[in-house]
Amino acid sequence: MNKKSLFHISKRDTLPWYTNVAIRGGAIILALVVCALVTTILTGENPLSIYGTILKGAFGTARKSWTTWENVAILLGISLAVTPAFKMRFWNIGAEGQVLIGCLASTTCMICLGGKMPNWLLLVVMTVASLAAGALWGFLPGFFKAKWNTNETLFTLMMNYIATQLVAYFIIIWEVPKGSGKIGIINQDTQAGWLPTIGNQKYLLAILVVAILTGLMYIYLNYSKHGYEIAVVGESRRTASYAGIKVDRVIIRTMALSGALCGLIGLLLTSSTDHTMTTTIVDGRGFTAVMVSWMAKFNPVIMIFVSLLLVVLSRGASEISTAFGLNRSFSDILTGIILFFIIGCEFFINYKVQFRSSGKKEA
């Protein structure tokens, strides 16, 4: 007599969009319930007060709100930059370095060319330099992958360290001994190379740029020939070759684009929001962007909400520490629980579990 397994897992057919939304919404609600239980057990605090404090930390004042939206914009921008590569199944883990090298390019222009040309021309030069530097940092792993099938994960990861050390080197060059004062708030007196503010709000321009980039990326991925080629290469490189798509060219082009967009975010960091350069200016968002892109299923619109969720949880962590005397690790626990449920619900969207009927008998 053959024994049957207690349950069977099988691939689902494509679910309607409203079912997908219902499953994901249910996962978030269940995650909040579990977080509430954990909060009560570990701290004895009212979980609603904890949630309210997290929102207060992110949106409690106008200044906090602008900072939150700026953080969302930067994280979203980096996530958009890496998405074409990920959709192509090219695992670009080098966004951190690609943004940093864009920061270095724009900072170099600000320090070396500031005051030597009109500001509008300096901004043009900075933009071109940042895009080119980021594109180069993306082109190199793409070229080696296309020509010699190198491991793109290791290649892009190692280039992060090169970019970090280059930035560290030039920070020292510009700080000591004769360059003292050039790094800090760059060109604070002349504001040479600073992007203009809109309505006296320095974050608004960066937010608008990323908003436009979101729309363009959605169109590029879903309605352009390049986006179609990226999708086909991601599904099967052999099929793409049979269809006449030049796979090597698509890999190199897509990685150059991904790096260039990271370079653009580097420009926004140095020229619009921070006006400085440090080795930690990207603050790990190049790695967080990997999670944002994957969780959103490479959909730029959904990335907005994923980025907002992660930034709000991060921004609320310090407020929790102040209000309840809890360390930041507690916020990380809540974040981990929520992400676990969000990621876990993808299993139930893609697969179904069928339990064995006890009433059936084997012949």
UniProtKB/TrEMBL annotation:
This is ABC transporter permease. It comes from the Bacteria. The chain crosses the membrane at residues 21-42, 90-113, 120-142, 154-174, 203-221, 250-269, 290-313, 333-351. CDD domains: TM_PBP1_transp_TpRbsC_like. InterPro entries: ABC_transp_permease (IPR001851). Keywords: Cell membrane, Membrane, Transmembrane, Transmembrane helix. GO terms for molecular function: transmembrane transporter activity. GO terms for cellular component: plasma membrane. The keyword Transmembrane applies. The keyword Nucleus does not apply. It is found in: Cell membrane. It is a multi-pass membrane protein.
